[in-house]
Amino acid sequence: MNAPIDPSRLKFGIGQPVSRKEDPVLLRGQGRYSDDLALPGQVYAVMVRSPYAHGVLNGIDMTEAAAMPGVLAIYTGRDLEAAGIGPMPLLIGQKNRDGSAPRPPRQPVLTTDKVRFVGDPVAIVVAETAKQARDAAEAVVLDIDPLPAVTEARDAVAPGAPQLYDDVPGNQLVDFHYGDAEAVAAAFARAAHVTKLPIRNSRVVVSPMEPRSALATWEDGRYVLRMGSQGVFGMRGNIAKVMGVKPEELRVLTGNVGGSFGMKASVYPEYPSLLYAARQLGRPVKWTDSRSESFLSDSHGRDHDFEAELALDAEGHFLAVRLTGYGNLGAYMSNATTLPSTGNTVKNVIGVYRTPLVEVSTRCVFTNTTPVGAYRGAGRPEGNYYMERLVDTAAREMGIDRVELRRRNHIRADQIPYDAPSGMRYDSGDFPAILEEALAAADWDNFPARRAEARKRGKLRGIGIGHYLEVTAPPSKEMGGIRFDEDGGVTILTGTLDYGQGHASPFAQVLVDRLGIPFDRIRLQQGDSDLLIAGGGTGGSRSIMASGQAIVTASTQVIEKGRKLAAQALEASAEDIEFSDGRFAIVGTDRGIGILELAERARGMGTLPDGTPATLDVSTTDQYEDSAFPNGCHIAEVEVDPDTGEVAVVSYVTVNDFGVLVNPMLVAGQAHGGIVQGIGQALLEQTAYDPEGQLLSGSYMDYGLPRAGHAPFFGFASHPVPARTNVLGVKGCGEAGCAGSLPSVMNALVDALAERGVKHLDMPATPPRVWQAVNGGAVA
Question: So what's the pLDDT on residue 610?
């Protein structure tokens, strides 16, 4: 007879709002971030960076710097190349429209020929103290002949533009095309109405709480790098290639990480430089980015420039959507990616709407700016933003209510599974119901009264919809490891990595659900590459799908091993052993043994019959079958002060379908964070370069991040439709906040300004730009 269910399982199982396991440690200041680390004999590194955006590097004079107190060494790109280190990894998956593969230029770890953006690293200085290293780095003299710079992708492909690379004519790396151009053209030709909208997805500076930091050592004949990352397994493989060693000759360790949003997933030049210095000097070498330096050295996000077009018939049914434009790569490919402005835009642009045809043409272009990489969503918010702005604009132009236009074009629940023209098959969802719930939650019908009241106060009030659907990262292998420790605890090992999401609790909840192990006995290990056999890292809203399914697979193997071990412990046949609620028992009897007791007893069983496992430990890999499709509807209300251009988000509600919610509290928190980042990009964050390529918004004195006062109280509701693409029915939620907030806030703003004749405004809608738009001036 089975034991009754432990009440604690009801509290800590799937679907419960369990607090984050790590919070007590972090709130006591006991976290271990990269800059907290120190080793005996540690020395310090500082990078020497170019002050010019573009120029020929003739030479580096290190004479004075090398003689300064405490300086141990100064290494350049020539030193690293002579040691066989480099080039940097170049990750590119898109092909040109003619089917050819792009040919990215070779990038040394430290540049040796030309500097291509302000902040381009050219040398590394190592000294006994951080101050000594900074002083010496400032004394290094760079002989650079400045060249003209170009910072906008559209300008970089113009005739006569400065050329960054001799082997990349016209600065264009990729000429991407997706879709049936003839069919799309025919759809536009027969359309009753065509909406055209030039639209920018503005560049943002990634601003995690913790700047990048790393500590490199040479230990026992191999490299060890302690650093912040989004996944140690993939990071180890990529850095090993740069160093010219086998993966097992490098160990990557990551502890607590104070945010990343995509930026810390890449290999940066600092990491191989530090490893080289550590081996040469035989001492630990530490580097920590300053905040002002990180504005230049960390990859930026977004920066796409498109003309968006939507073709509609006379009744407002969508016929085709077409995007034509540019993706700004910045100066290098090593920590940049072509995916957001190409493949991910394709997958995400049609969102929740029946749109028979899609065409995306993108020219991915090098410029003299900080390289652009993945940033929360990496093309998913962008695609949804383009479509939702098109829908609102088309509704206004055609005189159709914007809600009604959405209703007419929804993919209905009875049409799912739905084969989208993007090549994606939507497996689940109820988009019309979500819109209706959001409208009710936002009190949409009574908005005219709120607008009238705001007008009495001299304010312009607008309301906007962001009805999004995003495609999560594609399937990849992930580790599922379960280790029964001697102290009675259980450790989950997996290759995703928590950099603020709170993985420990939801992963433990899955294990509680599958194996009945007490929640407080479960630990999580993600940050040691020596312990992993696979790992795709965290990104693309994939973690609960990838690690969750891997934990389920590993749990199934634990149960199978446990039946055999329990048969020995209970002196029965393995066929007569059943497992339920954390306990193995002989069928039809009250004789049984708990899983943790069995794991402990197995250590003393001695010699076992052939085929009987010695432990319950499992180390396996798994792969979920397909992407998932989180979706939802955000409705924002804003008020604009026409005298100052100040914009306030005064109301915000969301209804979301994230499938099965393993931990609803953490899901809501993820959504809140993404929404605030979207508000920041929409209204505040302006990355500006001057004509010489100098970053004008190079500190928080010049760059506006959202603060608590910019965030409204959020209405958060769920309309979950379980995914059919993974065993847990989950859909991922980490990036969805941005996907809904960018369009809802900007649609609300344009709605507020429409009575002043404003039809469109690009991000960021800062007060000066809004004031200019309201008062009829040209928007800078």
Answer: 86
Q: Give dist(CA 750, CA 64) in Å, integer.
A: 57
Which pLDDT does position 439 carry in this prediction? 98
Q: What is the pTM of this model?
A: 0.96
- The CA distance from 779 to 771, in Å, is 9
What is the model's pLDDT at position 548?
A: 95
- Can you tell me the distance from the alpha carbon of 361 to that of 345, in angstroms, rounded to the nearest whole number? 10
| Six token digits for residue 503 | 């993985």
In the chain (780 residues long), the average pLDDT of successive 10-residue segments reads: 56 94 93 95 98 98 98 98 95 89 94 97 98 98 98 98 97 97 98 98 96 97 97 96 97 97 96 98 97 96 97 98 98 87 96 98 98 94 98 98 98 97 97 98 98 98 98 92 97 96 96 96 97 93 94 97 94 93 94 96 86 94 91 98 97 98 96 96 97 96 94 95 96 95 98 96 96 82
CA–CA separation, 499 vs 755, rounded Å? 44
Closest CA to 720 of 434, 472, 468: 434
Task: Look at residues 485, 269, 468 and name the one whose alpha carbon lies nearest to residue 383.
Answer: 468
3-class secondary structure, 409: helix
DSSP codes of every residue in 330-352:
ES-STT--SSTTTHHHHHHTTTT
Cα gap 472→476, rounded to integer Å: 12
Contact 257, 33 (CB under 8 A): yes
Evaluate whether 735 touches 656 at the Cβ level (below 8 Å).
Answer: no
For helices 402-409 and 380-398, the axis angle rounded to 10 degrees is: 120
pLDDT at 93: 79
The four Cα atoms 217, 223, 229, 234 give a dihedral, to 10 degrees, of 180
How many CB atoms neighbour CB 22 within 10 A? 18
| Alpha helical stretches, state H, 60-180 | 63-66, 77-82, 130-139, 153-156
- The amino acid that residue 121 corresponds to is P
CB 385 within 8 A of CB 378: no
The amino acid at 600: E
Strand (E) or helix (H) holding 272: helix 270-281
* Spatial CA neighbour of 114 closest among 67, 168, 163: 163
Place of tokens 């639209």: 199
Tell me the C-alpha distance between 540 and 534, whole Å.
Answer: 17
Phi/psi at 280 (nearest 5 deg)? -65, -40
CA proximity to 261, closest of 499, 515, 78? 499
Q: What is the pLDDT of residues 217-227, one digit of tens each?
A: 999 999 999 99
Nearest to 223, CA basis, from 145, 278, 144, 149: 278
- Strand pairing partners for 114? 56
Strand partners, 521: none
Instruction: Please state the separation of Cα 436 from the chain's center in Å.
Output: 29
Q: Of 759, 758, 748, which is closest to residue 466 (Cα–Cα)?
A: 748
Closest of 252, 723, 659 to residue 495, by C-alpha: 252
294, 211 contact by CB (below 8 A): yes
| DSSP state for residue 263 in the 8-state scheme | G
